[in-house]
Amino acid sequence: MKNLLLISLSLIIGTTLISGVLNNGGSPGRKTGSPLDGNSCAQCHSSSVTEVSWISTNIPETGWIPGEKYTITLSAEHESAAKFGFEITAENSQEKQGAFIITDDSRTRSLNQNLAVTHSSAGTAPTGSKITWEMDWLAPETNAGEINFYAAINAADGNGSTSGDKIYTSSISFAQTPTTGFTVEKTLPEIFIYPNPATDFVIVKSRFEIFEINLYTLIGERILTQTKFSAFENTINTNELEKGIYVLTISTKEGAFSYKLIK
Questions:
Q1: Cβ atoms within 10 A of the Cβ of 150, count?
Q2: Which tens digit of pLDDT belongs to each residue from 62-80?
Q3: What are the extents of the domains in the chain?
Q4: N or C, which terminus of the chain has less Cβ within 10 Å?
Q5: Rounded distance, CA 51 to CA 131, Å?
Q6: Does 7-174 match 191-262 in CATH topology?
Q7: Nearest 5°: phi and psi at 123?
Q8: Whole-model pTM above 0.90?
Q9: What pLDDT, in 10s, does the model give residues 163-185?
Q10: CATH fold of 191-262, please?
Q11: For 109-150, how does the pLDDT look when each residue is reduced to its tens digit (9 = 90+)?
């Protein structure tokens, strides 16, 4: 789910939480360490930065879809932390992308006109050594290509100074769904798809060598990829598919072609 046309999600704390004393109610903003924000919380906290993989989301591996809403979760852990803080943003190489939606207004709040999210004063206390924040992200309506999510988290030790805090950064990237802009029924006479409508199976037959077959839902979710098969005739099991309309893409030396498949 990484490295497609990618997305950038940035979770941050920059001068956000100074050992539980200053900025306890949230980051001052634009301290994510992302390419567009530049500065990070490490510039205000006497701490090294450790990269981790603490961002999770329900964005599919095929990529984000314009106008769709997704859930973003940040989970942090540090054994000696008395409090945690964060900030989050999403951007491509040119500008901030999408809009964050607060789903836990008691523990998180928005920044920068909904282009970032940070903790509130009630959202800093860990459970044991762990803490989790959650928010929604609304993807942009227009094509934006790769979007990156960056994250920075401050695990503050509560000693009343910036020394002793531990800064973590996290990032994850997503492509825009490959089905955005692909055309259903870009066909080639030498490729045959039958039976269509299908019940238990569909046969793909071609005069040209087939390199790859993919099956997508109409909203861009890839549900099948087939690369090991007979070069000119293949049978695809559709028995477990729900009734509906799908898009079957077939790659050959003549190019990639797409067909509407009905179950």
A1: 27
A2: 788 888 899 999 999 999 8
A3: 7-174, 191-262
A4: N
A5: 17
A6: yes
A7: -110, 30
A8: no
A9: 778 889 999 999 887 554 444 56
A10: Immunoglobulin-like (2.60.40)
A11: 999 999 999 999 999 999 999 999 999 999 998 878 899 999
Domain covering 7-174 assigned CATH 3.40.50 in the classification = no
Pairing relation of β-strands 210-217 and 245-252? Answer: antiparallel
List C-alpha distances in Å: 156 to 38, 42, 126, 216: 22, 12, 11, 45
∠ CA 89-90-91, nearest 5°, is 125
CA distance 28 to 56: 24
Q: What type of residue is 248?
A: L
Which residues are bridge partners to 133 per DSSP? Answer: 74
Q: Where are the beta strands (DSSP E) in the chain?
A: 7-11, 49-52, 55-57, 69-77, 83-91, 99-101, 108-111, 116-119, 130-138, 147-156, 166-174, 191-194, 201-206, 210-217, 222-226, 233-237, 245-252, 255-262
Map tokens 């769709």 to a residue: 68
